[in-house]
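The pair is quoted verbatim as follows:
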Amino acid sequence: MRRVKPIGDRLCEHREMEIRRYTRQDRSVPFQQWLDQLDKLAAAKISKALFRMADGNLSRVKWFAGIGEYVIDWGPGYRIYLAKEGLMTILLLGGGTKKHQQIDITRAKLLHEEFKSRKKAGDGGILWS
């Protein structure tokens, strides 16, 4: 969806993004599993980041190898791993912290490859929620 927002004395086009969570073939949702184990304050920080992304603000995302890493500079350095699906959809793959960053990136890449493979094969299963 497009909106026009005033920025100072000029107008700027603004696009809202659709946020989806990747659903594996066994119906598990890796991002949700990670989010559910966080305490309330951490979950609130993650929710704020999701709201910013849904509002089209991807300025905190570093893109590499087909995936993005949204960095939250708070606590242990939370990260949200995502991919873009088309122009207007963000696919959430998982999350983690700075301490386990390399493991989390590897897992996100594998989940993204799994998603693309399942989408291409048209396995008929649910790809996101």
Notes: DSSP finds three helices and seven strands in the chain.
